[in-house]
Amino acid sequence: MWSFETDPDFQKELDWIADLIREEVEPLDHVLGSQWNIHDPAFEELVRPLQRKVKDRGLWACHLGPELGGKGYGQLKLALMNEQFGQSRFGPIVFGSQAPDTGNSEILAHYGTADQKRKYLEPLLDNRIVSCFAITEPQGGSDPLGFAMTAVRDGDEWVLNGEKWFASNARFAKFFIVMAVTDPDATNPYQRASMFLVDADTPGLEIIRNYGFYGEAEDVHGHMRWTDVRVPAENMLGDRGEAFVVAQVRLSGGRMHHAMRTLAESTRCFDMMCERALSRTTKGVPLATLQMVQEKIADSWVQLRQFRLLILETAWLADNTPDWKAVRRNVSAVKAIMPKVLHDISERALQIHGSLGLSSEAPFTDALVNSYHIALADGPTEVHKLVVARETLKEYQPIEEMFPHYLKHRQHAAAMELYGDRRDAARAEIEGGAKAAI
């Protein structure tokens, strides 16, 4: 059954989450550095008590099943929760749902051995450690078929050589999940790479430089060099040549969570824009009375509602279909529209705030830059638009005729074949009756 209502009991949980985020989590954004820097003593002092509150409430790591300490919530509930988490950059980690650890935990839960789960998964789920998903390469960009890092078997080990680029949180990570080419001559190009689990203190790992972008608290995206990094054979995740299969375990759900957090960030900008429009005057009247300002507010509200409904529909479909492959078009559509929504709304909010909006005191330039970030992370917008188009066109077939059937003269001819005789007979009967009456 389709419904736009939230279960009353779950709504109470959402209200509790919203209150905690607003009153105690959002202030962390202004007093702490990176939300992944769990080694900061201030993190222990300020964040751990909030995490305990969440655990006591039973809302910790709700994307995981009960066997792993979570609620096993479906994508619809997770979407609604992430809509609240996204109000603060510390929101996800306070609730045990921060990327990339959520996706990496799903990979470990699915492919890890019992020993690996004890060593890596359990402390990761408890946020005693954080992790890094190292997949992109300097020359590869968004094309994983262009990756060059190699993994060569040597006895009971694999030896990894190459570079990784924009490896987020590499400087804080306890371990890496990394893709490397194991079978360069495989006929199927998507079976050339495998996925590995690597300790961060393994000899041969080097962070060449950490990169950041405007609005981030610290530079956390590592350019890494891997030189003769030896990994035990049992640390291959999934079978040889299955890196792309393994990666899909984490990507689709993560894209949905990012989308709801983006919705939250966009909504914050929208709320500030509306407040400013009502508060600020020019030429003796509030900005809110000016038609071009009203147009910005109206366009933003419509974008927010359209985006939110697309996310929730996709989440509902994911909960009611066997796997993510069945909803790949929806997921890609969500990912494709996400950066534009944040860009457009933050830009309008900045404009309405004038020079104050442009300043580093306001959050709008941060949001604008982040809109470009999310247009690149987890696959660029262009790739996701291609997926939407490709999946859509599978539902259609070409025609052999030169002129399509929907031209008016062809539609008229088909309609006449179906209804022409009856139409003419009905009209003749009426005309005959009229003549008889005369």
Overview of the structural elements:
With 438 residues, the protein is α+β, with helices and mostly antiparallel strands. Helix content is 51%, strand content 14%. It is built from 13 helices and 10 strands. The protein has helices spanning 8-25, 41-57, 75-85, 91-94, 101-111, 114-125, 243-279, 291-319, 328-353, 355-358, 364-374, 381-393, 408-437; strands spanning 131-134, 150-154, 157-168, 175-181, 193-199, 205-211, 221-232, 236-237, 281-282, 285-286. The strands form 3 sheets. The protein has a 4-stranded mixed β-sheet, with helices on one face. A 4-stranded antiparallel β-sheet has the order 2-3-7-6, with no helix packed on it. Strands 9-10 form a two-stranded antiparallel ribbon. Helix 7 packs parallel to helix 9 (328-353). The N and C termini lie far apart (60 Å). The model has no long low-confidence stretch (mean pLDDT 93).
Task: Provide key terms for this protein.
alpha+beta, 4-stranded antiparallel β-sheet, Butyryl-CoA Dehydrogenase, subunit A, domain 2, Butyryl-Coa Dehydrogenase, subunit A, domain 1, Butyryl-CoA Dehydrogenase, subunit A, domain 3, single chain, 4 domains, 438 residues, 13 helices
